[in-house]
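Hey,
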Amino acid sequence: MIISLTDHINNNGLTKMIVFIFFLVAARTPAIGQLSSTDILSNHIGKMSDKVYNKNISYFESNNMELSTVNKIGFRTETEEMDVDQQKYMVRVNFNSSAIKNAYKKLMTATKNEYKSLQSQNELRKTTDIYNLIVKWQIAQKEKSIINEGLLIQTDIQNVLNKMLINGMKFNMNEWLNNENNISDGKSDSISILLEIKNLENLLKINDNQNNIANWISISKINEIVNTIDESTIAQTIMNNVAIDKAKAELELEKAEGKKWFDFAQVQYQQENKLNFQKEFSFGASISIPYKARNKTKINEATLELYEQDYKSQIRQTNKESIINNLKTKIRNLTKQLTHYTETLNKMGLQKTYNSVLNNASVSPLELLNIKALILKQKKKTNKIKRDIFFRYIEFLKETELLLSSKVNYLSNNLETY
C-alpha cells in the first residue's frame, strides 16, 4: 500500500509527518512467490536434444564400422586376337591386412568421439545459456525492486518540494528540476526492466507472479566451489584430444598401407582347345615388397597433421588454464571488493543514522528522504558487484565444464541435483 505524502502533510502537518515517514519510503513487500532453479534446469536441460549429432552417433553405433578382410572383389574378361574361343575370365580378390583393419577401427572410434565432443560442446553452450537466463532473471528482479524503491523515494521528494512551493517555503529549484528528471528516468527504467523480465520469463517458461528463486546460491558458496578447482588439473582433464586421437589413427592407417605386402589373389580361366578343363584354370597373387619410401608422402602428411594437432592441444590447454585462473582471480577480487564495501557501509552507519533521526522533529522530511536515497545508492552498488560475480561464476562453470560433469544445480546453495 502506497500512501500519498502530500495528503499526509495536509492532514497532520510537517511535524507529525516525520513520525510516519518510515512507512512512506519503505515499500511494503507482497508475499513472494518463489521459483526453483532446479525445476527450471530440469525442464529445459532435461529435454535438451541434439538431433544432428545424435543421428551421426547413432549411425556409428548401429552400423558395423569395421573393415572386412576382403576389400574388393573384381571380375574381368578379355579376348585375344578377337577369338571368342580364346576368351579369358578373371576373378580378383583384394584383401585388407589386420594392421589396416585395426587402424581403421581406431579411426572410426576417434571420428565417433569427435561427434560426441561436438555434441557435448553444443550441450554446454545451451546449458550455459539457460544458466545465464536464470541469473539475468534473478538479477532483474533485484534491480526492479531497487528501481521501484528509488522511484517511490523520488516521488516523495517531489511531493515534499511541491508542498514547500505551495506553502511559500524556500527550496532549491535545481533540486526540483533534477528530481523531476530522476523520476522520468526511473519510470523509463521501470518499463525497461519489466519488459526484460517478461522476455526472460517467456524464454524460461515461468509465471509472472513469481519474483524470487528459492535456495539461491550465496557468494560464499560460489567462492567455495571456485577455490576447490585446480586449473592445471582440470584443464588436463577436460582437454578434448579427439583431434589427436584421430590424427594418430590416420597416421597408423597410412603406415599400415605402406607395410601391406599381400595385395590380391586371382583365379583365371582361359578356354584352350588343346588343354583339358583343369589346365585351363590358373591362380595368381600379388605380393608387394615393403620398403621405407613406400607411401611416404601420405605418411609424412599424416605425421605433420599429428604434430599440428598436438601443438594446438598444448596451446588450448595453456589458454584454458589461463582463462580459468583469470576467472578465479576476478571472482576473488570482486568478493574482496564486496566485503570491503559492505564493511565500509557498516562503519558509515547510514541506516543507523536514518533510524535514529526518523522521529527527530528537527530533521526535515527532505533530509530523511535524501538519506534514504543515499542508502539506496549504496544498495545499487552492492547489487552491481554481486551481478558481476554471478556472471563471472557462470563463465567459470562453462570453462571448467562443470555444467557437463553431472546434473548438479550450481545455482542452488546446497547443490541440488535435477
